[in-house]
């Protein structure tokens, strides 16, 4: 079967590897035929050559793990040892081994769920990041609040859209990339084209948001900017993936402003994937606006090359069989 691996920074190699079979499926896992994948912001540091914390990322020149780093997948079940999945089901969710860039993928069935069959595979794959966003927003009180989202990439725009749909009074989006052309489609009331430190330095007290969502990650600065930006009594949600074990934050600001800091991974994955499917049905315009670029499996390098540079009209990139 076809598969990809990273052999150097910014460099994928396509190769043929032995097919996976039902004998490779552990308890509560399934074997999927690859239908689609999504490129996530958390895939980009490995693509650039950063060594991650995934088990098996031990290559000399790059990760060199077959199928790595993709985890957002859609597939058809070919074999199952999970009671909720049957052969022939089409499912969306997590490639639990972060090895979704191959023709046949073994994944934990607990992180997969069926989806509306009317959806194309490239649109269905967007339900995985949407599920992450909805689970995170369940932890917040958004009704009537001013919500600011630092980072208006593919995940930040989903946060903006969902926050507005779930009752936010006003949504501010902050990103140095020009998002004027897409921000309004995603519920952003005020689009700020600048870096988060510059935004914070010009904030008036009356403009400070009640909720600040950090949707950038992969460096330590923007969490501090989120804390600085929040209004007294506000909440900061850290969603961006941390590449560092420790982050410096101002405890003085946390204390004096009575702030709440929240974070965490997505739990109850099957449930929230179902919630994402329902949300997409209620907002039929969302997924078509969200998935802006689609590549075939012979164009994986091009898909990641596009994902790794700022392009104002790009939101979500899908890869399809």
Describe this structure in words.
- This protein has 321 residues and is α/β, with parallel strands linked by helices.
- Helices cover 26% and strands 26% of the residues.
- Strands 3, 4, 5, 6, 7, 14 and 15 form a seven-stranded mixed beta sheet that branches. It has a six-stranded parallel beta sheet with strand order 10-9-8-11-12-13, sandwiched between helices. Strands 1-2 form a two-stranded antiparallel ribbon.
- Strand 11 (211-214), helix 7 and strand 12 (235-238) form a beta-alpha-beta unit.
- It starts with a strand and ends with a strand.
Which features would summarize this protein structure in a list?
six-stranded parallel β-sheet, 26% helix, alpha/beta, single chain, 15 strands, 321 residues, seven-stranded mixed β-sheet, 11 helices
Question: Strands, helices and their partners?
Answer:
Layout: E1 2-8, E2 11-16, E3 29-39, H1 44-48, E4 72-80, E5 90-94, E6 104-108, E7 112-114, H2 121-124, H3 127-137, E8 146-150, H4 154-165, E9 170-175, H5 180-183, E10 190-193, H6 196-201, E11 211-214, H7 221-229, E12 235-238, H8 251-256, E13 260-262, H9 269-282, H10 286-290, E14 291-296, H11 300-307, E15 316-320
Helix pairs in contact: 3-4, 3-9
Q: What would a concise description of this structure say?
A:
The protein is 26% helix and 26% strand.
Low-confidence stretches: none
What does the radius of gyration come to?
20 Å
**Would you tell me the structural class of the helices and strands?**
alpha/beta
Give the helices and strands as they follow along the chain. EEEHEEEEHHEHEHEHEHEHEHHEHE
- What fraction strand? 25-35%
The counted number of beta strands is 15
Characterize the overall form: globular
Helix content: 25-40%
**Annotation field: number of helices:** 11
Distance between the termini: 12 Å
What would the average pLDDT be, to the nearest integer? 96
Major sheet summary line: 7 strands, mixed
